[in-house]
Amino acid sequence: MKLKHHRRELELCTYCPKLCRFACPVAEVERRETVTPWAKMSLAGMVRNGRLELDDDVAEVMYHCLGCQHCYIHCRHGVDVPTTLVAGRRLAVELGVAPEPVQQVVDRLQAGADTRGNDLRQMLDAEADAESRQQEAQAVLFAGCRLLARPGSLRRHLQVLGRLGIDYLAVFDAEPLCCGLPYWWAGDHDAFRQQARRLARRLGAYRRVVCPCPSCAMTLRLLYPQVDATPAPEVLHLVELLAPQVEKNPPPQPLAGSFVFHHPCTLARHLELEQIVDQLLGRLLAEPLASTSWSGKDTFCCGGGGLVPEMLPEVATQVAARRMTQLEASGAGQVISSCPGCLDQLESVPDGLETLDLIEVVARAYGM
Description:
Distance between the termini: 47 Å
Oligomer: single chain
Strand order of the largest sheet: 2-1-3-4
């Protein structure tokens, strides 16, 4: 959808007294009025009305958004700031005024790499053997860029799922290996549409697609239909696969220790799976999760979304540090999350709490 279609959102946001400012992680760490949701939307509104030219400087401001939708859940009018700003980014790409790192990201994706330049095919080949790629299977595990970039993670997922009796998943092995979400955040929607339709044709051969990364699941479920791409009859995040399995066969010895869960923005707000993952962890852990001031649908972003790590690495680092401080205040000894991108961000914080992938919690609870 283009910027001209967002009149309601832009007008409501422009005349609002900035009630969601506190909810924007970028504005909180940058401490600049220009990057508050109100200011970004005001600029976009002036561009839409022809009162302001979309030049390099104005376009750059639109990339100071994580896409986390924390402002959205605190908006009484339901204004979707990230989606509107994505429309602004799309216009910036069309006009050739997007920041230089945007083209760098696009070039890497078109070369078969992730946004950081890591070759996706090489990473997959290092993690998945021939047996795990039996493509005649009816269900497939779509690893995604961030999981593949974590050495040993895909291998560990396959091992744990197999031990739980979920051995019918094949690892998706066809091109493209990226869901295309970075194209969406970049504003290159023509490239996103091409990637989505190409991948949807490949995934359409399966009855079920399982994604360890909530961003991949969100992209396949919610964004692909916007470009007339249907990936598979059923797209699940990993927690939706694990929850019924663990409910039927609880672990013999729940994992002891004090843990806090970092709810990924996409899992909680886009996919609305926060209750499922909390229930799952309730069966896997011996003690209740420690509570934080920001959790569930009100979770605070780790700083890993919206291409902010690629465009504004210092901002992403500061947001991650702020999130780690919140998690440390819970008094827990370790952090659990179910998103490889969130784990990357939290692990980048010096002297932060130890982090655990959800699949590792499952493994330890079942003595693997």
